[in-house]
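2024-03-11 09:14:02 INFO worker-7 job=invfold-0412 stage=load source=structure_tokens
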């Protein structure tokens, strides 16, 4: 079973691209969704975060916006948070892979926004970077509800620059030219990976 790491900066079209791989029969592990699960009611992270930041717990779940304010106030909080969130996500990913393998999947997608930043690229067979021009990226992100220039800049500062991701990629999928062109690239990349 091939393990494909899918990454790309915010607004590049990574989620749409992941869904295209899914349509072609590749199970997708979404790292962001895994974190949401940890933060939601009954999630593993709730009790732990409650001991540190009790004010971020709303209806037995973690309010990501309030948590974000603590992280912005002291970036060290992010390091502490990641020190236990990342291993939990890793455990969820391992369980997902085991299930996909027993289901006979030929390839799985690890959809990880910070794949390089968290050294996750070392645990995959191929890295696919989803990319778009800076102007397309900004337009997409700024159209999101509640997005501001400050938040956009903060998110970008936490991510490796697109040009560096592209330089380290095994494959690049460009999402500038619409869904059909993106879908053609996804099919081509998957065919090449499965042929090796």
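2024-03-11 09:14:09 INFO worker-7 stage=emit residues=196
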């Amino acid at each position: 079973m091939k393990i494909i790491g899918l990454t790309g900066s915010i607004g590049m079209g990574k989620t749409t691209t992941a869904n295209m791989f899914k349509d072609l029969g590749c199970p997708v592990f979404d790292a962001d969704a895994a974190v949401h699960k940890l933060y939601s009611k009954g999630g593993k992270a709730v009790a732990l975060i409650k001991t540190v930041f009790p004010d971020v717990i709303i209806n037995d779940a973690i309010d990501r916006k309030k948590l974000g304010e603590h992280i912005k106030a002291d970036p060290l909080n992010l390091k502490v948070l990641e020190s236990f969130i990342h291993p939990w996500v890793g455990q969820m990913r391992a369980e997902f892979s085991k299930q996909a393998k027993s289901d006979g999947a030929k390839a799985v997608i690890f959809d990880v926004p910070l794949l390089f930043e968290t050294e996750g690229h070392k645990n995959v067979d191929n890295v696919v970077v989803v990319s778009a021009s800076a102007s397309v990226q900004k337009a997409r992100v700024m159209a999101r509800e509640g997005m501001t220039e400050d938040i956009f800049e903060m998110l970008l500062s936490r991510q490796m620059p697109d040009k560096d991701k592209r330089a380290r990629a095994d494959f690049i999928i460009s999402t500038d030219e619409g869904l059909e062109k993106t879908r053609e690239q996804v099919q081509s990349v998957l065919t090449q990976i499965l042929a090796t």
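2024-03-11 09:14:09 INFO worker-7 stage=report msg="Residues 1-27+107-196 form a domain with the Rossmann fold fold (CATH 3.40.50.300)."
2024-03-11 09:14:10 INFO worker-7 job finished
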